[in-house]
Amino acid sequence: MFDVVIYSVLGAFYLFIVLSQMLVVILENRQPVKTVAWLMVLFSLPVVGLVIYFFFGRNRKREHFVSRACASQLARRSAVRFYQGGFPELPAEHKPLIKLFRRQSGSFPYPDNKIRFFISGEEMLDNLLRDIASARHHIHVEFYIIEDDKVGRLVREALAVKAREGVSVRLVYDDVGCWNVKNRFFKQMEAEGIQVAAFLPVRFPKFTSKVDFRNHRKIVVIDGIIGYVGGMNLAERYFYQVDKNQPVWRDTHVRIMGNAVGGLQRAFLSDWYVAAGQTITDQVYYPREEECRKIMACDREPYVSRNALIQIVTSIPTAPWPDIMQGMILALLRARQYCYLQSPYFMPTERMLFALQTAALAGVDVRLMIPERTDKRFLTWASRSFLHDVIRAGVRVYLYQKGFLHSKTLVCDDTLMSCGSTNIDFRSFERNFEVNAFVYDKEAALHMKKVFQEDQSHCRMLNLETWETRSIWCRVAESSIRLLSPLL
């Protein structure tokens, strides 16, 4: 009898907690699809659902992990001297987009940049190691994933050599992205003189306030003049085919030389402040324009463009606006001829989905390329559940078959392209720290368009009739996973 009373009390207490948390979810006025998803988790998964919500579901938007004042100070530092001579002339067709980024995240447009693209991991790694070897003052490295494998150790050794030469080397890694990496890998870096910091380390009891906000950025800054940004992490699979039974990874990264590297520097130093608690605003990290020009004049790399206008745009989960998502939406809605997008995952927010549909219905040639198979099967199912919505509106969907497409790019109307770390999914748009380079340049856009078209030759295009004939079991699996897509 006593046991029955105990179980009854515990059951009533658990039910009270679940109902109260469900009420909290409703009162937070999130997007309806997110609210319904969390209500389903809480209601249908006893105990487990409550644990998942406790770790991942609580709204932490008001908890500012990043000092906005620090980021603003860094933005001013990176631009104030450059713009003393006046603001650069902006392309008329992209003024609204440039102003959007400037007002929301303090992202300045910088002219006179050289830009080079890498679609081969080996080529990117060779160039990165060569640039590291040429560093004279500082090297800043930030990746979501840095693995203790051939690539990770190769980069670590290159950084250690420069640290021993007296170059200041700082490295930020995401604690969750590197969960599988032994701590001794980073301890050895510190022993070599490299300054290392983990971004929002996940430790009990602060686990629940940090685990869902991750730093997905991939940034390298060398002497404030050379910068790298894109989709590649420091792990073998991004550069080599490690296992013949696994698909080859196809990704895109860009190398920038010029004033826009100040935007990457600002992003890194903001993250360094969060990870290491150290504010760095010394002007030596932002070389003057004349210094940039002198070094650029001696550089003989084969660039796609040598005079590109570039904005480095960041987004953070604690900001009032999802900057990169809004920029992509505006680019779609302002496109007149075409807009081509690549993403390894496709779980768009309602606003992004609506923009894709609207642009296609307005007669814009909208093409979406995603991999035939992702690295996680349930994400493949979730992505495919959204394809009917865009195909029906006229979006041309291509499934990449040559390997795993991990590229995150956008190109519009031969005048605009973007490359960075941002996927077309809920997590990248709303819960990750991301960075993209938006490039307003004809040569760069035409190059990215050509790359897209070459990738397209390794795809199969979906059409509405054949897509609707897939089995009922496939559609049930996809639709079931879709219900949880806002939480993935």
From TrEMBL:
The active site is at H216, K218, D223, H406, K408, D413. GO terms for biological process: cardiolipin biosynthetic process. Its main location: membrane. It holds the Pfam family PLDc_N. Its EC number is 2.7.8.-. It is an enzyme of class 2 (transferase). It is found in: Cell membrane. GO terms for molecular function: cardiolipin synthase activity. NCBIfam families: bac_cardiolipin. Catalyzes the reversible phosphatidyl group transfer from one phosphatidylglycerol molecule to another to form cardiolipin (CL) (diphosphatidylglycerol) and glycerol. This is Cardiolipin synthase. It comes from Paraprevotella clara YIT 11840.
